[in-house]
Amino acid sequence: MSNKSYGLGYERKRKQELIESNYLTNRCRGSFGIFDIVACNKQHLLLESVKSTKQKYYSFKSELKQIREFDNCPAGTVKRLILYHGGKLKILYEDKI
């Protein structure tokens, strides 16, 4: 299994989790941009970057920097960097604009 297909499975899983939490959700297919998932509910817009790894040690410094600096969105938008490590969801970064 390639790294892209491994990550794709977790993007699909995350999209389904958000749908089950009453978000209208879109996965940015083939995206090489900052965010993989764009979702909204009545409270806010949600932008998520989904990462996954099997490695014991990992770093997402460049991705985190891009997410922190991104501010071209409406007030109240939630930005997140999430990681699936060992099949478990971890929120590495979250901020509300």
Net shape: globular
* Estimated helix fraction: 25-40%
N-to-C span: 37 Å
As laid out across the biggest beta sheet, the strand order is: 1-2-3-4-5
The major pleated sheet works out as: 5 strands, mixed
Alpha plus pi helix count: 2
| Number of strand segments | 5
Give your account of this protein's structure.
The protein has 97 residues and is α+β, with helices and mostly antiparallel strands. It contains 2 helices and 5 strands; from the N terminus they run H-E-E-E-H-E-E. Strands 1-2-3-4-5 form a 5-stranded mixed β-sheet, sandwiched between helices. The longest helix has 18 residues, at 3-20. The termini are far apart.
What's the helix and strand layout?
Elements: H1 3-20, E1 24-27, E2 37-40, E3 45-53, H2 61-69, E4 78-85, E5 88-96
Parallel strand pairs: 3-4
Antiparallel strand pairs: 1-2, 2-3, 4-5
Key descriptive features of the protein:
single chain; 97 residues; alpha+beta; 28% helix; globular
Short structural summary:
Helices cover 28% and strands 35% of the residues. The protein is of the alpha+beta class. The longest helix is centred in the first third of the chain and has 18 residues, at 3-20.
